[in-house]
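## retry 2 of 3
previous attempt timed out at serialization; input unchanged, resubmitting
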Amino acid sequence: MDIRIYYEDTDCGGVVYYANYLKYFERARTAYLEQRGVSVAQLMKEGTVFMVARANVEYKSPARYGETLTIETTVDASKNASMTFAHVVREKTSGRVVVEGSATLVTTDLEGKLKRMDPALKQTLQAPPKGAK
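## retry succeeded, writing output
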């Protein structure tokens, strides 16, 4: 997934504000799910919610206003009630690594109580995107 850096994304030095990477990770995870035919809204209707339990961000080099970032997202680990998404953010033109990070999400019911992930959902999350060769 690509993200163009706008002025609003940056700090007073023209560098992407550090906390924005968590928003970019969220967008990338949503795109990852959608590419596999998983709808967060539909899961909620069915009683399953994803909640972030842990996030890790390692800053490698600054991204600046006007650049475009490419985010690669994979499922790094999956357990009965959690999964960890790994993210690598690169500047699109040069390929330079800007940020590496991860987020561990747990599955809960609508009241926030931990619940086992449906095995079919777990398998779908680890599969390649629909239409990929």
